[in-house]
Specification:
- With 172 residues, this protein is an all-alpha fold.
- 76% of the residues lie in helices and 0% in strands.
- The protein has one domain.
- The chain is elongated.
- The two termini are 18 Å apart.
Length: 172
């Protein structure tokens, strides 16, 4: 089987099952952004690959991008809520108890950068898991957090998926 035949087969499979693209991307982005879960499920690589599959299959980018942005924003929103709800107990919960320096580092980062830290943290693997959690722990103003959360989530989702989609379209 040639590379071209394999690519055509994958594209057909993705087109035939495109109704799964939105829920799968939402779930992956949610898992990648949710504190605790994002430490054990690194989904960013799958999201980059999905961008390429979108380009190969010709399915619409926009609904998948919206699903990725909403999934990421919801994951951070839940992480923020966990931080507000459980405050100091979080450091003693697994998996944070296994990484004792992670929360203090994220807290120093948040003190230095504030709301801009939500944007920066979205694009850093180790910080992505803890910045929203720490924002909740330190009780960052809710609407400031949500503005930065949603804006950075949609930017992040687009930056992860668009290059693969555009690269494949340029090559084909």
């Amino acid at each position: 089987m040639t590379f071209e035949e394999m690519t055509r087969g994958i594209a057909e499979f993705v087109r035939d099952h495109q109704m799964w693209a939105v829920p799968v991307v939402f779930a992956l982005a949610f898992a990648e952004s949710l504190a605790f879960l994002s430490l054990v499920i690194p989904a960013w690589g799958a999201l980059v690959s999905i961008g390429a599959l979108i380009g190969v299959s010709g399915i619409s980018f926009w609904p998948v991008w919206i699903a990725g942005g909403l999934g990421a924003a919801m994951g951070d929103w839940v992480s923020y809520w966990i931080g507000v709800r459980f405050h100091d107990r979080i450091a003693h919960m697994w998996p944070m108890s296994s990484f004792p320096d992670m929360l203090p580092r994220a807290e120093r980062f948040m003190q230095k950068w504030g709301v801009l830290g939500i944007f920066i943290g979205r694009f850093s693997g180790p910080l992505r898991a803890t910045v929203p959690l720490v924002a909740g722990i330190v009780e960052m103003e809710y609407w400031h957090f949500q503005f930065a959360n949603f804006a950075s989530a949609f930017l992040w989702a687009g930056l992860l998926m668009a290059p693969g989609m555009l690269g494949v379209k340029l090559l084909m």
